[in-house]
Specification:
Blueprint: H1 13-28, H2 37-64, E1 70-74, H3 84-91, H4 94-103, H5 108-113, H6 124-138, E2 143-148, E3 156-159, E4 165-168, E5 181-182, E6 188-192, E7 195-199, E8 202-206, E9 209-221, E10 228-237, H7 244-248, H8 252-255, H9 257-263, H10 276-301, H11 313-316, E11 317-322, H12 329-340, H13 345-355, E12 356-359, E13 370-372, H14 373-379, H15 381-399, H16 405-410, E14 421-423, H17 424-431, E15 435-437, H18 440-450, H19 452-457, E16 462-464, H20 471-477, H21 480-490, H22 512-537, E17 546-551, H23 560-576, E18 587-592, H24 600-617, E19 626-629, H25 636-642, E20 648-651, H26 663-669, E21 673-676, H27 682-689, E22 695-696, H28 701-710, H29 714-720, H30 722-732, H31 745-753, H32 763-777, H33 780-792, H34 799-811
Parallel strand pairs: 1-2, 1-11, 2-10, 11-12, 12-15, 15-16, 17-18, 17-20, 18-19, 20-21, 21-22
Antiparallel strand pairs: 3-4, 5-9, 6-9, 7-8, 9-10, 13-14
Length: 817
């Protein structure tokens, strides 16, 4: 990996201040005396863009000139977080910004806080994509991140008076947004519906309607690399935005109907798909951004050519499919090559399979998208024809590889049933060069279980790339105190671009004075987070308690229910007198998660957590020893405040269900200890930080599978452990629902009769490990020694390393000279 030194600022403090004044005057139309922090934020952002512009142009030009193959990262989500601080850091202008803003009479943090976080993702998949484009730029690799500029993101989470999740629009684009450059001159036409006809012996798609895909470009500056890549997000517009004749008839809503229908495509992330209309809109979204991106790539790499040699496309760019959402790009590229450029099937398929690669992010069958063939046929009739032909060719290919007819049938891309379905993960595996999982365990299970038939016949396609996170945002920006201590301990700041250098901290874990400095950093971060939580949410957190966090998407397999049941059990023991409150370790438990709007049990779990918090936090018998908080609308900003302040991180998903996780990496890198199962990247974290520095509990994948096979009866565990029985009984009897026994009846029934992810089976082991955790926490020096060893041994989990793995194993490209 190329060594990167710290960036040097291209601008002095005085020049930065002058740039802000000029932007305020000519852009915002205000003087510094009239300006608000929001004005200064916009002006500062435009100054940063100005100084990045030349590097951005040069990166694009060098890429087009073929100096190295580019990467096209296709993702439905890019959870990029706030941009200003990150751009300042990577461009070397942090100090100049702070000093310039202060010279104008403003507080830098207030200016930074004026930026509204882009609502462009939901969770780990989108944050991973953002880390990866950051690392691509930092390694000097030319790249496009391609996605959608959602107007309202997924949703803004609020809680009503009963603790239930309420979804509100996230108006992140309501104010001026200086980072996204709208480029109407490079828009693309994306079509839907219609029919396929044959003309002169060739198939011709006659679409019924089209939308305009307008690119919105975000610069992605690399850390000290001198390179600036592009995040190109597409916004859907109508070609017929307004019907004047209809409007003049006073039919006002009908007059703007085409505009509304077109713009719905990029309105929100992941529309609820429990209805046919929702499914249709999701497929429209997916095709919209990949079709626009493929057209854009041809425009970028073959400028002005009416008859380009697209057999060279795999040498120009490699597309990475970030999960199944962009997989419709495979038949789209085939359509473009065959229908628009006249290539024969074999040549088109050769180009396509050399261009695409697929990252699978899940082992859950419901997350491997399967589309009804008739829906694809309705929206994309030519693509369904191509998918069926891909399937036919693939089945013929399989007959040459195996005589196992059942295996061939299992591997069909298009199912053979009355209402056929298209398996997008199978299409991606057949239509790409490589398939990778995102942690060693996940990749092995992908080969052994989820895509076993494909792995048997195409073993060379499968590989692993363990996820990573960018240290720039999640250590340097999120945790400046720890960053300074690391630099002090190592004697250099080069670790920001070579995170394996953290290993040099390991000897310092034997130095009590250094460990005490490390502990002081954590305490100061906790005090900062307590102030932040008070300011933002009105919470009263005690920074002298253990901060215990569980932040991740709300899903049954992630088992927030296990955490809340253990908390209820602790509460029940205190209330019953089994445990003296004076002997309880003071603990503050913080949840952060959104649930999909239609996910009934997940939303009920949110309501339960909020109402446990209401009861426990207001019970005088607890004497402040146990508090539960659930800050709403969890996002990157909240993560950057909470992760550095956390003592204990929860990674308690059922073994074999979490693909990787990246929150576990962020916590370990910021000095939290982990309690977790052998799932996802937990396995690799534990191997690297040391088993003695990780709190392991719960069943293994093999034990989970064996219990499924013999028949799982959750009520047995309810009867076996009095702590579990007491906790569930309190939920059932209305303790946390003002005496109403019906409020959580579906949740209780699911726990006792189904409990598919075996929360009850792992409950006893989870509660027992808490005794070890609390015993260690009572020894602050030893706790912090182990926490420091987590930091020292987590350097592997950098997104720079992950991207280097992709470059070496899959993309076979490298940085620009």
């Amino acid at each position: 990996m190329t060594e990167i030194t710290a960036p040097k600022s291209p601008v002095t403090t005085a020049e930065f201040a002058d740039g802000i004044r000029e932007q305020l005057k000519y852009g915002q139309g205000v003087t510094p005396e009239q300006a608000t922090p929001a004005d200064v934020y916009v002006a500062s952002s435009l100054v940063v863009r100005h100084y990045l512009q030349d590097a951005w142009f040069k990166t694009q030009q060098d890429m087009v000139n073929g100096k190295t193959k580019a990467v096209g990262y296709l993702s439905a989500e890019f959870l990029i977080g706030k941009q200003l601080r990150n751009a300042l850091l990577n461009a070397g202008m942090l100090d100049q910004f702070d000093e310039a803003v202060e010279s104008l009479g403003f507080d830098p943090q207030t200016v930074v806080d004026a930026e509204y976080e882009p609502a462009l993702g939901n969770g780990g998949l989108g944050r991973l994509a953002a880390c990866y484009v950051d690392s691509l730029a930092s390694l000097g690799v030319p790249a496009f991140g391609y996605g959608i500029q959602y107007r309202y993101g997924i949703f803004r989470q609020e809680f009503d008076s009963e603790g239930r999740q309420v979804e509100k629009p996230e108006y992140w684009l309501a104010n001026e947004e200086p980072w996204g450059h709208v480029d109407y001159n490079r828009s693309q036409k994306v079509s839907f519906g219609g029919t396929v006809v044959e003309e002169n012996g060739r198939k011709v798609w006659k679409p019924a309607w089209s939308v305009r895909a307008v690119p919105v470009d975000y610069m992605v500056p690399g850390y000290a690399s001198g390179r600036v890549d592009t995040l190109r997000l597409w916004s859907a517009r109508s070609y017929d935005e307004f019907d004047l004749l209809t409007f003049n008839k006073s039919e006002y809503l009908d007059a703007v109907k085409p505009k509304v229908e077109a713009e719905n495509i990029s309105k929100i992330l992941y529309p609820e798909d429990s209805t046919p209309q929702g499914k249709r809109l999701r497929l429209e979204q997916q095709y919209f951004f990949v079709a626009a991106s493929i057209q854009d790539v041809i425009r970028v790499f073959y400028p002005g050519q009416s008859n380009p040699d697209l057999t060279t496309l795999p040498d120009k760019i490699t597309f990475q499919l970030n999960d199944t959402h962009p997989v419709i790009g495979i038949p789209e590229l085939m359509r473009v090559l065959i229908d628009e450029y006249g290539y024969d099937w074999a040549t088109a398929w050769d180009i396509t399979t050399k261009t695409f690669n697929y990252t699978c992010h899940t082992l859950l069958p419901e997350a491997l998208e399967v589309w009804p063939a008739d829906l694809i046929g309705e929206l994309l009739p030519r693509h369904l024809e191509i998918i069926n032909e891909i399937n036919d060719h693939f089945l013929e290919e399989l007959k040459g590889k195996t005589r196992d007819k059942e295996k061939i049938e299992r591997m069909r891309i298009v199912t053979n049933e009355e209402n056929p379905k298209v398996r997008m993960a199978y299409l991606a595996t057949a239509g790409g060069s490589h398939v990778n999982g995102v942690a060693e365990l996940h990749s092995q299970l992908l080969k052994d279980v989820t895509l076993r038939d494909f792995s048997d016949l195409y073993p060379d396609k499968f590989t692993n790339v363990t996820n990573g996170v960018t240290p720039r945002r999640f250590i340097r920006l999120a945790n400046p105190r720890l960053s300074n201590l690391i630099t002090e301990g190592l004697g250099t700041d080069k670790w920001l671009s070579d995170l394996e250098m953290l290993k040099g901290l390991e000897p310092l874990a034997k130095d009590d004075e250094f460990v005490k400095k490390f502990a002081a950093v954590k305490q100061a971060n906790k005090e900062d987070f307590a102030a932040y939580a008070k300011r933002e949410y009105g919470f009263e957190l005690d920074p002298n308690t253990m901060f215990n966090s569980m932040i991740k998407r709300l899903h049954e397999y992630k088992r927030q229910s296990l955490k809340i049941l253990a908390l209820i059990a602790k509460y029940a023991d205190i209330k019953s007198g089994k445990v003296s409150v004076d002997d309880v370790l003071p603990r503050t438990v913080i949840f952060g998660a959104k649930s999909a709007p239609g996910y009934y049990l997940a939303k009920m779990t949110i309501q339960l957590i909020n109402n446990v918090a209401r009861v426990v936090n207001n019970d005088p018998d607890i004497k402040g020893k146990l508090h539960v908080y659930y800050p709403w609308n969890y996002n990157v900003r909240l993560a950057q405040h909470l992760i550095p302040a956390t003592d204990l991180d929860e990674q308690i998903s059922q073994a074999g269900k979490e693909a990787s996780g990246t929150g576990n990496m962020k916590f370990a890198l910021n000095g939290a200890l982990t309690v977790g199962t052998l799932d996802g990247a937990n396995v690799e974290i534990r191997e690297r930080v040391g088993a003695e520095n990780f709190f392991l509990f719960g069943m293994t994948v093999d034990e989970v599978d064996a219990l499924y096979a013999q028949g799982y009866h959750p009520a047995v565990y309810y009867e076996r452990d009095p702590r579990l029985k007491a906790a569930i009984d309190m939920v059932a009897d209305g303790t946390f629902s003002n005496g109403d026994r019906n409020t959580y009846a579906p949740l209780v029934a699911d726990w006792l009769t189904k409990d598919w992810f075996m929360t009850l089976a792992d409950f006893t082991a989870y509660c027992d490990i808490q005794g070890e955790i609390e015993a260690l926490y009572r020894d602050p020096l030893e706790w912090n020694r182990k926490a420091l060893l987590n930091v020292a041994n987590s350097g592997y989990f950098s997104s720079d390393r992950a991207i280097q793995d992709y470059l070496d194993k899959i993309w076979h490209t490298g940085p620009l000279a």
